[in-house]
Amino acid sequence: MELENGRERVALVTGTSSGFGLLTAVELAGLGCRVVATMRKAADKNALLEMAKRAGVESNIDVAQLDVTDESAVETVVAETLARYGAIDVLVNNAGISVGGFVEEVPMEQWRRQMETNFFGLVAVTKAVLPAMRRQGGGTIVNIGSVSGKIGFPGYGPYAASKFAVEGFSESLRHEMSPFGVKVVVVEPGAFRTPIWQKGLASISASPDSPYDAMLRSVTAYSRRAGETAPDPLHVAKLVGKIVRASSPRLRYALGKGSRLTLWTKALLPWAWFERLIRFALSRS
User: Fold this and answer.
1) How far is CA 277 from CA 60, 139, 152, 251, 265, in A?
2) Is 159 a catalytic residue?
3) Rounded to whole angstroms, how far apart are CA atoms 82 and 52?
4) Which of 85, 156, 159, 222 is an active site residue?
5) Assigned CATH class of 10-260
6) Per-residue pLDDT for the chain (285 aa), expressed as one digit of tens each?
7) Model pTM?
8) Are 84 and 185 in contact (CB under 8 A)?
9) CA nearest 51: which of 22, 78, 75, 77?
């Protein structure tokens, strides 16, 4: 994917060791981008490189180690990318974790860990890239949000809080960067077959004699069933590819099984009715 001046487009993608990030890195490389694929541990690069090799795009991908919660590391990776390639045309903020549990029972350090990764890390990477995009007069920033950034689900308060924050940040940033030709988009996937939910369920916080035990069991059963029947995460990577190629992408893209219907239902129904629908869905789990 070349620009008008013949230079290849450079994409920086975070959280590429698995899931949406891995697939997006390969998708963008397949579109002709030079992809700097970052991950918290570079030793976890094998799955990415194997898929890239099968797709014939391994030569388009450079792996860089990056913990998005480490501001100095963020600055270093961005500076090295700019020094090597002269620009960053696309930023995909995908790195994230899922902290589960009911609000009362989730330790504060877990709340902070959730926000540091999903929100403050995203802000840090974005801030580091903005000066270059502003000076070059263009660029595309894709923030991987979630339907949980529009709908708070019981048992996922920390995750929802972090994704609601991404929504507000993205909207404000789009206003700020529009005069400089920088496009800001937030993608809002529903449930897809990625490792993040299994990891979140495995580390869910709960007391041995939790007063929330019955509801927690309903939430986890619902989440497992949703994960088992969820669509292929490749749909998200393909959507990011379309957004990167679009001249005027819109601010928000919701996708996934029932995601848009659920968002419209929340928007149109009185809250009390929507709340009853959520309770009914959980009662069937």
Assistant:
1) 47, 41, 13, 28, 10
2) yes
3) 23
4) 159
5) alpha beta
6) 656 566 789 999 999 999 999 999 999 999 999 999 999 999 999 999 999 999 999 999 999 999 999 999 999 999 999 999 999 999 999 999 999 899 999 999 999 999 999 999 999 999 999 999 999 999 999 999 999 999 998 889 999 999 999 999 999 999 999 999 999 999 998 875 556 556 655 667 677 788 988 888 888 777 777 666 667 889 999 999 999 999 999 999 998 776 778 888 888 889 999 889 888 877 775
7) 0.91
8) no
9) 22
CB 1 within 8 A of CB 242: no
CA distance 25 to 21: 6
Q: Who contacts 269 (Cβ-Cβ below 8 Å, separation ≥6)?
A: 277
Could you identify the residue written with the tokens 């960067």? 177
**Cβ atoms of 196 and 162 closer than 8 Å:** no
How far apart are alpha carbons 176 and 166 in whole angstroms? 15
Structure tokens given for 228: 């088992």
